[in-house]
Amino acid sequence: MKMDIVLIPGDGIGPDIVREAVKVLDAVMDKSGHTVKYTTCLAGGCAIDETGVPLPPSTLEAAQKSDAVLLGAVGGPKWDTVPGDMRPEKALLGLRGGLGLFCNLRPAILYPQLSAACPLKEEVVAGGLDIMVVRELTGGIYFGERGLSADGQSAYDTMAYSTAEVERIARKAFEIARGRSGRLTSVDKANILETSRLWRKTVECCATAYPDVQLTHLYVDNAAMQLVRAPRQFDVIVTENMFGDILSDEASMITGSIGMLPSASLREDSFGMYEPIHGSAPDIAGKDLANPLATILSAAMMLRHTFKLEEEAKMVETAVSRVLEAGWRTGDIFSEGCSKVGTRQMGTLVAEAVGQE
Ligand code: NAI
Ligand code: MG
After folding, report:
1. Which top-level enzyme class is recorded in the Swiss-Prot or TrEMBL entry (predicted)?
2. ipTM of model
3. 25 and 58 Cβ atoms separated by less than 8 Å
4. Looking at ligand 1, which residue's alpha carbon is closest to its atom 25?
5. Which residue's alpha carbon is at the smallest distance from atom 8 of ligand 1?
6. What spacing in Å lies between the alpha carbon of 281 and ligand 1's midpoint?
7. Is 221 a catalytic residue?
8. Is the Cβ–Cβ distance between 197 and 231 less than 8 Å?
9. How far is ligand 1, taken at its centre, from the CA of residue 317, in Å?
10. How confident is the model at residue 48 (pLDDT cuts 50, 70, 90)?
């Protein structure tokens, strides 16, 4: 197979971590005989500096023509004074919206080797955590009409969803739940919000096609509470854009390691955009301190979801586990008795572990 991948390193640690993910992808290519063509594009603050806009049309075009995008992170203090519509983060919304990426997958996995990093009590997470948050990404309040009154004294945002929008994300979530434990929790605020009542009704309708999946509904405030009270009750969670943003951050933090968690943004075909969930960490940019594992694991998700290379995806995930098992740690996940390594060495260790018997 020949893969056509657009790399968007972005700002801060973005270039540091994307470089290491490429190292690992190259190791996979060597082992598997597949080939890859990379095209590197600008987005975020670096794009503002070079072209005046956060998302140059050439980047969106290249992404549209590719099979998949691997993104580092965008933003940083240098662009904090840029007006709202021209901020680096606009590039993310532009890519998600422009590419029609309505389905955001965020696995929150507590690696047994890193259980010390989990902020919850040991008995609450005994047996580990492996939660998949499926977040709707192109609808809801983040894309609704908004406004500020002329006197600056009032403002509004609107949340809207159509049945079609809910159906397509619900179907994705049911499919994913079917491939895992068969448990799906749909999160909404149906006691208050009209959009949530439509959400719940639509998810219920979809459920008839998936009798093998056990569906439950939770209100979002309860879901937030349950995630820290008894997170092991969850397998797959599906929810709308803003609730998903908040719950997936919460779910990721109970695994204790922002530098470990990948994400995928998908649509109906096999195209996808893959990125770590963390930001551009300007405090450690260019210092060989960033943990590249979230980006490396995002590349594994790319192999799985876009290229349907399950074996190769597992190869990368197993390599990461082995490197952790052997005690190698970047600063953010370091604990007593482990060996500290930098960004580059971590990437090299994983690349070397790929495909080892
Ligand atoms: P952040 O995720 O960049 O950093 C939070 C903390 O975690 C920092 O102490 C950082 O050093 C650390 N950290 C993050 N990733 C790490 C890694 N891979 N290895 C080791 N440590 C890591 O979030 P923050 O500080 O709120 O935002 C910084 C910039 O990133 C802002 O401009 C923000 O807008 C942007 N951002 C971009 C995102 C994206 O591109 N998807 C997402 C979130 C924030
Ligand atoms: Mg967020």
Report:
1. oxidoreductase
2. 0.97
3. no
4. 281
5. 281
6. 4
7. yes
8. no
9. 23
10. very high
- Architecture of the domain whose range is 119-254: 3-Layer(aba) Sandwich (3.40)
Q: Which residues are annotated as a binding site?
A: 76-89, 96, 106, 135, 221, 245, 249, 279-291
Residue type, 134: V
- The verdict on pTM exceeding 0.80 is yes
Q: Cα–Cα distance between 307 and 66 in angstroms, integer?
A: 12
**From the CA of 278, how far away is ligand 1's center (Å)?**
5
Answer for the pair 340, 330: CB distance below 8 angstroms, yes or no.
Answer: yes
Question: For the purposes of burial, counting CB atoms within 10 Å of the CB of 8, is it exposed (0-12), middle (13-18) or buried (19 or more)?
Answer: buried
CA distances from 297 to 183, 197, 274, 304, 350 (A): 24, 35, 9, 11, 11
The answer to whether the CB of 108 is under 6 A from ligand 1 is no
For ligand 1, atom 38, the nearest C-alpha belongs to 279
Q: Best mutation site among 106, 252, 258 for ligand 1, i.e. most ligand atoms within 8 A of its Cβ?
A: 258
- Verify whether ligand 1 is closer than 6 Å to residue 258 (CB atom): yes
pLDDT at position 283 over 90: yes
Mean pLDDT computed over 327-333:
95
Q: In the predicted model, what is the mean pLDDT of residues 112-119?
A: 84
Q: Show the tokens assigned to 130.
A: 């492996």
Q: Which residues of the chain does CATH 3.40.718.10 include?
A: 1-102+272-357, 119-254
pLDDT of residue 51 exceeding 80:
yes
Catalytic annotation, pick one of 11, 16, 188, 245: 245
- For residue 33, give the amino acid letter: G
Considering the domain delimited by 1-102+272-357, tell me its CATH architecture.
Answer: 3-Layer(aba) Sandwich (3.40)
pLDDT for position 98: 94
